[in-house]
Amino acid sequence: MSLRTRVASILLVIGVCFTVLNFLSEQLILLPGFKTLEQIEAKKDIERVVDAIQREIHYLDVFCHSWAAWDDTYGYILDYNMDFVVSNLNEETFYDQNLNLVLFVTTKGHVLWSHLVDLESKKEIRVKEVPLDYVPPDHPLLASKVHNNNVTTFYIKGILMTSRGPMLIASRPILNSANKGPARGTLVVGRFLNPSLIQIIQEQTRVDFQLWRISDKTYPREANQYVERLANNETAMVRERDGNILEIYACLKDFRGEPALLLRADILRNITIKGIATMKFYSYSIIGIGLAITLVLLVMIQTTVVSPISKLTDRIIAIGKCERNSMGPALKRKDEIGILAKEFNRLVLNLRDLSVRDELTGLQNRRGFISMVEHELKRANRKNIKKHLLYIDLDDFKQVNDTMGHREGDRALIEIAKMLKATFRETDVIARMGGDEFTVFFTNGSNIQSPVNHLKENLNRFNARQKKLHLSFSIGVAEYDPEHPCSIDALLSRADNVMYNQKRIKKRTKDNILPSISTDEGKTVLN
Does residue 297 contact residue 304 with C-beta atoms inside 8 Å? Predict the structure, then answer.
């Protein structure tokens, strides 16, 4: 199969696979994700409604507690002071606090004062669930029936189901203002969960919802499957009515903890609707863009890639045969791309090695040194590590070449390279910069005495073994401080200046022994 046919086939297969994968990802990942997110948000809506109702119960309980634990109320229970009734239990109290029920009961069940009113009609009403004349001692709404050692922390609150609808109820033992007993009776307050309160909660939560009494089974038939599960402490249940509406069900329990009300909110499926519209637009766009790109690629590959590759392959083969030191990995294929990859890798490996390594000593050359030091400088800046640069130059190297020959001069350079490798770590950057100049970039904290001393010892041991070839060199040291960063060229220049200063000192003193070495900061590191 020719390269042209193979390219066209590959592009066609890629296009088909991409289209199929795009469709599957939308149906199996994106769309279910939208639905899951939609259900999570819908459950949050119904939870806000439940929390709002519980909050109303809490506020009612706070009011009940503030009145029940009050010296005036405590005194009223003891002496039946009518001034308390006139001052506090008036019509304004019921309307200001949105109360339907206030009930004062003694510990023996006698009702001292009671009032149950319909706030809309302003008429007194009665419901069998709330006794207004006499409350039996075992009545579940009596908060004072608990033993005295627990009375200060005891309360009853929740929903009371009545013949006139659900009522939010709170009951507290009557104590003094210090919240101490013994309890003198019970205060019961209530507020109907009527349409006006429901409207207020809807405005607060921005959720439209409906309530049904579970015991009457007047709720929609499709809710039957959720009632039992909600009664067993399931938080919320979701039903997809259609493509536009989600039904969210929750259960409200009465003050005894028994299922009392079924709550349903109808939520518009904005997330899924917008998600499907977005996916359609995305799919059409991707298909259109994919077709356009495929056509453009076919034309471009045929005209600008396939034909030139054949010519380029011949040229790379010719270049690659010039050097056979190493061979990089090649693709196992017999077409033009395979041959090109094989020969190109061979050429790149050769050139890369030649471009960064000195052929004589095996050390990094100037290009390799610059490349590696750039990386080390970034690391030093990132970790705030000080580093040092040694610039080394052989003394009288020209005389070695002139008197002993270039072969011996090459050996001298190789021996210097061995000394540097033996002195410094593998992680340090050692390079021959050209001619008889070497550099070392290393980390040794503020102590560069040790590696320089080690280098001197290696030099002395080498010279002690030689009869004719004796080497010496001058060293310049520059410190790189991340707090005062500089370029590689600036660092090399500083070290080079220190090195040439050492050379001048050695010539002036006519001393070939390695002299004292100072950094560009003026610190003596070797004597």
Answer: no
Please answer whether residues 343 and 328 qualify as being in contact, where contact means their C-beta atoms are separated by less than 8 angstroms: no
DSSP alpha helices (H): ranges in 80-125? 82-88, 91-96
Q: Please say whether the dihedral angle defined by the alpha carbons of residues 170, 173, 174 and 176, taken in this order, is positive or negative.
A: negative
Angle at 160 between CA 210 and CA 201, to 5 degrees: 35
What was the pLDDT predicted at 165?
A: 92
Do the strands 387-394 and 259-268 form a parallel or antiparallel pair, or are they unpaired? Answer: unpaired
Whether 157 contacts 170, CB under 8 Å: yes
Q: How far apart are CA 343 and CA 2, in angstroms?
A: 20
Lookup: tokens for 316: 């790379």
What token pair was written down for 417? 């390279």
pTM score over 0.85: no
Strand partners, 250: 263
Residue 473 is classified by DSSP as E
Residue 185 CA to residue 102 CA, distance in Å, equals 13
Whether the Cβ atoms of residue 112 and residue 185 lie closer than 8 Å to each other: yes
Cβ-in-10-Å burial (0-12, 13-18, 19+) of 348 comes to middle
User: Around Cβ 128, how many Cβ atoms within 10 Å?
Assistant: 7
For tokens 């006698």, name the residue.
110
**SS3 (DSSP) at 175:** strand
Share of the chain residues as helix, strand and coil, in percent rounded to the nearest 5: 55, 20, 25
Buried b or exposed e, range 130-157, using 16+ CB within 10 angstroms: bbbeebeeebebbbbbbeeeebbeebbb
Reduce the secondary structure of 373-395 to three states and give it as a string. HHHHHHHHHHHCCCEEEEEEEEC
The answer to whether the CB of 65 falls within 8 A of the CB of 80 is no
| Per-residue confidence (pLDDT) for residue 264, from 0 to 100 | 93
Question: Which residues lie closer than 8 Å to 374 by C-beta, 6 or more apart?
Answer: 488
240 burial level (CB within 10 Å; 0-12, 13-18, 19+): middle
Return the pLDDT at 511: 53
In angstroms, the first-to-last Cα distance of the chain is: 74
- Whether 184 contacts 107, CB under 8 Å: yes
Antiparallel, parallel or unpaired: β 123-124 and 111-118:
antiparallel
What is the DSSP code (8-state) at residue 305?
Answer: I
The secondary structure of 177-236 as a DSSP string is: TTS-SS--EEEEEEEE--HHHHHHHHHHHT--EEEEEGGGT-S-GGGHHHHHHHHTT---
How many CB atoms lie under 10 A from the CB of residue 119? Answer: 16
Distance of alpha carbon 150 from alpha carbon 143, whole angstroms: 11
C-beta of residue 420 within 8 angstroms of C-beta of residue 479: no
pLDDT of residue 126: 92
Low-confidence ranges of the chain (pLDDT < 50): 323-329, 512-518, 522-527
